[in-house]
Structures are given as structure tokens and as C-alpha cells.
Specification:
It catalyses: L-glutamine + H2O = L-glutamate + NH4(+). Homotetramer. The chain has helices spanning about 1-25, 30-40, 90-100, 105-110, 125-130, 140-150, 155-170, 175-185, 190-200, 205-220, 225-235, 255-265, 270-275, 310-325, and strands at about 65-70, 75-80, 85, 220, 280, 285-290, 295-300. The chain is of the alpha+beta class. The strands form two sheets. It has a five-stranded antiparallel β-sheet. The protein has a two-stranded antiparallel sheet with strand order 3-4. A hairpin with a 4-residue loop joins strand 5 and strand 6 (about 285-290). Bound molecules: glutamine. Glutamine binds near residues 88, 190, 218, 283 and 284.
């Protein structure tokens, strides 16, 4: 009897040990992203953005996935060599720069942290709040963020913004000139938003300069690997797992992630948080990044967008991987 009991407790102990080890084993990221690629590559829902004419030239078939972990590992599949313009993804990193310079209180006071519930370039949203952009991730707030960056002059402002993007991506990023030109030729709406905010004193510099630099930062090309590495800085408390540099004060990281949770997918942000439970950001070039604090960032590129301007396959892929890795932030861990 005693022996049986002993055997049973040894057995349950070894079960406990093996389940604990299992729980600690890293998920098979490589298998997961390949499964997601296979599962969603033939989903042709959504439409490639064409309100910026140069974006309409990108193939709807492009599809790439990269996971970058806080311990510096990279897993990727698909068209990972294809670069794409960051567009609104750039807003996150310039917001982080402004926060690093001015601190979270000033970002909250001057740029806000509320959802607009309206499209990313809504003029009505600015009008309803008498110029408060509500958050730094809609166009109005992002242009206001550019104007808030501390700089000596226009060249210095651009250099600070580009150097910041480079540091986060661990790369020398370049501006996609045809995209920049195309967007400069068609950005009257953004100019109007900037002037509307200026009329309410919610702009902190020259509107022309800020709109041009904002447009330039949106035209910076990245690959999913570079974007995932940028996200991994946020997952790793503001320190790049690749260069070891602290790029954002560790204390400010939760505020950056909160802004992403509030407005990263524009008027699709609430549904995204409800469904997936992760801070994320999209861009109309088809890129998207989501951050799992302490673990990994996932970047996906696929140009066809839903009606709010978020990549369809990117949302599906991230949801798939997040569910398989039980990454929803609202789950008790
Ligand atoms: N550059 C684009 C614009 O200003 C960015 C929009 C986006 O990616 N949602 O319209």
C-alpha cells in the first residue's frame, strides 16, 4: 500500500515537473507563423489603399510575417525581403520620441489619450473637441506630435525623427521617394487638419513644416523584420534586444502601449482589443505590429485593408498567433 502511494506521488510529482517545464517552454513560433501564412494567404478580402496613388501599385498578394522575441530571436516567413512604407506605423515611434523628450504628462495634456471613434483623418473629430487631437495616433495628433518634437530647425527635426526610427529598427532606413512625392501631391486633407488644429492652438510649430516631415516619416520603408524589431523594443521595456540600447525610458513604455491599445487601429481599435487583447498599430501601406510585453512583437505585411484602414491578413495572423500563445493581456497569467 505504502509503495503504491509512494509510486503515485512520484508519478504526480513528475507530472507536475513535466507540465511546469512544458509551460515554460517557448511556443513554436516558427510553426505558428507558417500555419498562419498557409491559412490566410488565399484570403483576398480587403482593398489595397489608393487614396495615396503610389500605394495602389503594391501587389495584394504580398504577405510576410516576422516575430522578434525579447531574447533577440527572429522567426519569419513569406515575402520578408519586400519593404513597404510605414505610413501610420511611424506615428508610434515619433510619439515615443516626443514622450522621451517631454514626458508622459505633457503628451497626455497636449496630444491626449482617448479614442475618437472616427476615421484616422477625421476633421469632424478635431472640430468636436475644439482642436484637441484626442491621441497621437490619428493623423491630427501625429502631425501635432511632429510639431512637438524638440528641434533647432526643419533639418534637425527630420534628422531626430529618422535617427530615432533607425535606432528602433536597428537599421539605416530610407525614404521611399515615389511614395513621398505621391503623398505630398495629395495631402491637402492633412494640411487642412493641421491648420484646423493651429486655429485652436493645438499645434506646436509651423504647420507646413510639420505636415511635410510627417509625410516623410510615413514614407519611410521597412521590412517586417525591421518592424518586428521596433516592436520588440516595446516588448522589452524600451531597450532594444538587438543593440542593448535603452531607447525609451522604461517607465514610459506602458503609456506608449496604452496609446496603441486606445487608437492603434483607429475606429477598429475597440473591436481589436476585445477580440485579441493586445496593443497594436497598423499603417495603410499594409503593415501592422502587435506587442506582447515581456515576450515578443509580431509584424505582418499584407496590403489589402478593411474599411477602417487596417490590413485584413495582418489582423487574422496576429489573432491566430496571439490565441495560440495565450497572449491576450487580459488573461490572468
Ligand atoms: N500617411 C497616411 C496619411 O496621412 C497615413 C495614414 C495611415 O496609415 N492610416 O493619410
Amino acid at each position: 500500500m505504502k509503495i503504491k502511494l509512494l509510486a503515485a506521488s512520484v508519478l504526480s510529482l513528475s507530472f507536475l515537473v513535466s507540465t511546469t517545464t512544458l509551460a515554460q517552454t517557448a511556443p513554436d513560433y516558427d510553426a505558428l507563423i507558417k500555419q498562419a501564412h498557409q491559412k490566410y494567404k488565399n484570403n483576398n478580402d480587403g482593398k489595397v489603399a489608393d487614396y495615396i496613388p503610389a500605394l495602389a501599385t503594391y501587389s495584394p498578394q504580398n504577405f510576410a510575417i516576422t516575430i522578434a522575441t525579447v531574447d533577440g530571436k527572429i522567426y519569419q516567413t513569406g515575402d520578408v525581403k519586400k519593404a513597404f512604407p510605414m505610413e501610420s506605423l511611424s506615428k508610434v515611434f515619433t510619439m515615443a520620441l516626443a514622450m522621451e523628450q517631454h514626458g508622459p504628462k505633457e503628451v497626455l495634456d497636449k496630444l491626449g489619450a482617448n479614442a475618437t471613434g472616427l476615421p484616422f483623418n477625421s476633421g469632424l473629430a478635431v472640430e468636436l473637441t475644439k482642436g484637441a487631437p484626442e491621441n497621437p495616433l490619428v493623423n491630427a495628433g501625429a502631425m501635432s506630435t511632429v510639431s512637438l518634437v524638440e528641434a533647432k530647425d526643419k533639418t534637425d527635426r527630420w534628422n531626430k525623427i529618422l535617427n530615432n526610427l533607425n535606432a528602433w529598427a536597428d537599421a539605416s532606413l530610407t525614404v521611399n521617394e515615389p511614395v513621398f512625392k505621391s503623398e505630398m501631391d495629395t495631402n491637402q486633407h492633412n494640411q487642412a487638419l493641421a491648420q484646423l488644429m493651429e486655429s485652436y492652438n493645438s499645434f506646436y510649430g509651423d504647420t507646413r513644416e510639420a505636415v511635410e516631415i510627417y509625410t516623410r516619416q510615413c514614407s519611410v520603408d521597412v521590412t517586417t523584420e525591421q518592424l518586428a524589431k521596433m516592436g520588440a523594443v516595446l516588448a522589452n521595456n524600451g531597450k532594444s534586444p538587438y543593440t542593448g540600447k535603452q531607447l525609451l525610458n522604461e517607465k514610459y513604455v506602458p503609456q506608449v502601449l496604452a496609446e496603441m491599445a486606445i487608437a492603434g487601429l483607429y475606429d477598429g481599435s475597440g473591436k481589436w482589443l476585445y477580440t485579441v487583447g493586445l496593443p497594436a498599430k497598423s499603417g495603410v501601406g499594409g503593415g501592422m505590429v502587435a506587442v506582447v510585453p515581456g515576450k515578443y512583437a509580431i509584424a505582418v505585411y499584407s496590403p489589402p485593408l478593411d474599411s477602417a484602414g487596417n490590413s485584413v491578413r495582418a489582423q487574422q495572423t496576429i489573432e491566430y498567433v496571439a490565441q495560440a500563445t495565450q497572449s491576450n493581456l487580459f488573461l490572468a497569467k
